[in-house]
Request: fold
Amino acid sequence: MLTLITGGSRGIGYAIAQEMAKKGSDLLLVSQNAKKLQTASNKLKKQYPKLKINSHVCDMGSQEEINILADDCIRTNLVPDFLILNAGIFLEGSLVNSKPQDYRKTLEVNLNAIYYLVQRLAPKMASKKKPRIVLIASTAAYEAYPVGALYGVAKWALRGYAVNLRKELMKNGIGVTLVAPGGTLTDLWAGEELPPNRLLEPKDIGTIIANFVDLSSQAVVEEVIVRPMLGDMHE
Reply:
């Protein structure tokens, strides 16, 4: 089993990698930061020496680099059984006052990149024994998100994409799951003074996704919403 994780060098992506490795899955980590990607890969190789840990530097805001990633996966027989689309970007700004380039970049990384990569890899994944595509969204896909309206729009769109992709790929035996975490303790919250245990742990998301491995081939979790016990925090 091979799991490809975008944004896999830190935060939720790295936590997913940790939990999938515990399930015995080989890994292909994707990140635009070569240094952090190398550090993450080395740690996992040390922890799981029997697994194949591959890495690929890719800017998910570049369709050209995404195509190179897809070409390399196909050429080197690294088409994943589990495709975890986690990479994202958060830019503050209202819909009325934000810069057009910020709007375009937010949609390019959080939505369009997923469209590009799935379009390339899904046809190849159909031959896998139990192929699954997992889209990491956000609870911002279910309500207004004043602190990050651009992000909220992108995640609402991603949710619509997931619903349609699920219907489209079921005939090919490819399951599609949308996972929507609430506030999670990642770099996004660096420097913020928060009460203890106010946010989800990245491992919470990794644990949920890794458990999909144990389901039968005819079972698909379509949608998961995970929030902190006291609810989300909004400014």
